[in-house]
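Holo prediction. Input below; ligand is iron/sulfur cluster.
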Amino acid sequence: MEALFYHKIDNEKIKCVLCPHNCIINNGKSGICKVRVNTKGILISENYGVVSSIGFDPIEKKPLYHFYPGTEILSVGSLGCNLQCKFCQNWQISQTSVSEFGRESRFYKPDKIIDLALSRENNSGIAYTYNEPVVFFEFMIDIAKKAKEHNLKNVMVTNGFINKEPLNELNKYIDAYSVDLKAFNNDFFTKYTKSKLEPVKESLLNITKAGKHLEITTLVIPGLNDNPEEFEQMVK
Ligand code: SF4
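Structure of the complex:
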């Protein structure tokens, strides 16, 4: 599947502008996320339809505590991530390419996921989760559009490291965001996630201004991101 949000630099190189890494990718190579590949000048989303994990979870497990509490949500994950957190709990699916992960993943068309979501009575919708959904943008948005037609809610569990234009596109279909704010300290972001804090803050404002449901989660790592002053700044 051809990816969205990229442009050609010359015959060999292309620039992906889906997330703030804005990777410049040579022919035959992938971006930092490992799943978007320059194939002869066309950016291919290699993980389109590739599902590493799928199942019904309580919505509180996303975690979302104030959005359809007490319901379940069909949770879908693929492969790849645009961050490289040293403390990642899902590194087997996040820090891999489609070819490295190989046969353990399954292929799903969006319609099959919709059918599964509709098959359960107490299911409120579909959550894009487990690995970073930003890097399966095309697959997510194709499912989300169909989900909306069936009155299913769309939930994105994300690190928030995405450029403004694709986030604006997502805001048309995503009903609730659970954003994992890794810390409130740019040095932490650089050292432990290989990304930056500022774009995540911009995403949080963007989501809020779009009037979407937003809940923020922080994984506390003793000694690394548990400074009380930083928490105070974060909450403010
Ligand atoms: S989505 Fe992937 S390829 Fe695109 S800019 Fe981000 S890390 Fe790079």
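DSSP finds eight helices and 13 strands in the chain. That is the main takeaway for now.
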